[in-house]
Design brief:
By secondary structure, the protein is α/β, with parallel strands linked by helices. The protein contains 6 helices and 5 strands; from the N terminus they run αβααβαβαββα. A 5-stranded mixed sheet has the order 2-1-3-5-4, with helices on both faces.
Length: about 180
């Protein structure tokens, strides 16, 4: 992976990272917002400490461990990636409550257009803020967006010490099994 200077990472602030999407996906994974490493590379979940790609593989969604630069391969497995908020920041706590609400509104429109079977939001706090659902927990939600079911997954950031890669993979696997049913 390329190394970036602090100045190069800072220059990626507010950049937009294109979604990896198609109509009718099995699962559309939804991050909070791109980090600076993701914005600098143009690849989702690109920060080395982020556990998204290893957990995706451990849970059985992909037959091998993909690199962030191989993100478009997800489409061949019926998977995609988007974000609640499009703009890149160093930390998710830089986002405002209004950005989360507007992001949730735009995400619902995107999901209604793309019609994935499942929307999987990685991060319960982001889901709660985007959809004004303060009681949401990790797991399947009652909310539907059109015909799309919603599942909240643990945030794969290396900063989320409450979940190990193994326990995250178990939760991702629960979603995979539901999506295959």
């Amino acid at each position: 992976m390329a190394r970036f200077t602090p100045a190069e990472l800072e220059a990626a602030r507010d950049r937009l990272v294109p979604d990896v999407v198609a109509d009718g996906l099995r699962v559309l994974f939804c991050g909070i917002n791109p980090g600076l490493m993701t914005a600098a590379t143009g690849h989702h979940f690109a920060r080395p400490g982020n556990r998204f790609w290893p957990v995706l593989h451990l849970s059985g969604f992909t037959p091998r461990l993909l690199k962030p630069s191989e993100q478009r391969e997800l489409l061949s497995y019926g998977l995609g990636i988007t974000n609640v908020v499009a703009r890149a920041t160093a930390r998710a706590d830089e986002l405002t409550a209004e950005e989360y609400r507007e992001g949730g509104r735009l995400l619902a429109l995107k999901v209604a257009r793309l019609r994935p079977s499942w929307l999987a939001v990685v991060g319960v706090t982001a889901y709660r803020a985007a959809f004004d659902d303060r009681k949401a927990q990790v797991g399947p939600q009652e909310r539907l967006i059109g015909d799309t079911r919603v599942w909240v997954l643990p945030n794969p950031s290396g900063l989320n010490a409450h979940w190990t890669a193994a326990t995250m993979a178990e939760e991702f696997a629960r979603l995979r099994e539901a999506a295959e049913a």
